[in-house]
Amino acid sequence: MVLNNENLVENLIKDGYLKTALIINAFKAVDRKDFVRDEDKEHAYVNYPLAIGFGQTISQPLTVAFMLELLSPKLGEKILDIGAGSGWQTALLAQIVGEQGKVIAIERIPELKIFAEKNIGKYGFIEKGIVKIIEGDGSKSYELDAPFDKIIAAATSKEIPDAWKKQLKIGGFIVAPVNQSIYVLGKTGPEEFSKKQYFGFSFVPLVTD
Ligand code: SAH
């Protein structure tokens, strides 16, 4: 039985999902319980996605750990996070990039945008100017904040939207689901990308307007 956030993090390390100190420390500092609904608090530390309403879920811990290790976020980076949902992954990213960094999260469901803001609010990341949550369709461009060092998405589509490729700095990475795989695209030139694929995950769909 996983009783607290520390146990959850220890299991993710033991099972090989969490490896990097900066990411491990963020998982310790940001408690998953703060991002689930009141009726789910006792299940906050199990390795499952949990419903957050509107047919959406807070992602499974091992998937978030695996994707963040692939993304390899660093102190001071500017990151685009598509599908804020509960705000858990957004808060983890904010903890990692710190006060010199920035996380722009996009969420298309207005009620979830508010839920994410409320949850992230417990950590002061919005007041400090590290996190900004935008309501809208994240498959489109948000030129004001681009380009980004890294882009991560929590909702799956048939292909990586062109808007993400355009908004990425050269040398940057996109970690996003395509169907039920995780893709890692590395931007090697203005129009050139390397690609790696990891099979066997499960995601909610990216809904485009
Ligand atoms: N990392 C989040 C994942 C939430 S599930 C968490 O752990 O809580 C994915 C989220 O993506 C859902 O909230 C869904 O509403 C949102 N989403 C789906 N399509 C989107 C789009 N085109 N633009 C922005 N958000 C989208």
Structural features, described:
- With 209 residues, the chain is an alpha/beta fold.
- The chain has one domain (5-198): Vaccinia Virus protein VP39 (Rossmann fold, 3-Layer(aba) Sandwich).
- It is 27% helix and 27% strand.
- The chain is built from six helices and eleven strands.
- The protein has helices at 5-14, 21-29, 61-71, 88-97, 110-121, 162-166, and strands spanning 50-53, 56-58, 78-82, 102-107, 131-135, 148-153, 155-156, 168-178, 181-187, 193-198, 204-205.
- The chain has a seven-stranded mixed sheet with strand order 5-4-3-6-8-9-10.
- A hairpin with a 2-residue loop joins strand 1 (50-53) and strand 2 (56-58).
- Helix 2 (21-29) crosses helix 4.
- The mean pLDDT is 96.
- Residues 56-59, 82-83, 85-86, 88-89, 106-109, 112, 137-139, 154-155, 204, 206-208 line the site of S-adenosyl-L-homocysteine.
Relevant terms:
binds S-adenosyl-L-homocysteine, alpha/beta, 6 helices, 7-stranded mixed sheet, 27% strand, two-stranded antiparallel sheet, Rossmann fold, 209 residues, globular, 11 strands
Describe what is shown at a glance.
With 209 residues, the protein is of the alpha/beta class. It has six helices and eleven strands.
- Helical fraction equals 25-40%
Low-pLDDT runs: none
Annotation field: number of helices:
6
Which band does the percent of strand residues land in? 25-35%
Largest sheet: 7 strands, mixed
**Structural class by secondary-structure content:** alpha/beta
What is the name of the CATH superfamily?
Vaccinia Virus protein VP39
Count of discrete domains: 1
CATH topology: Rossmann fold
Molecules bound to protein: S-adenosyl-L-homocysteine
The coarse overall form would be globular
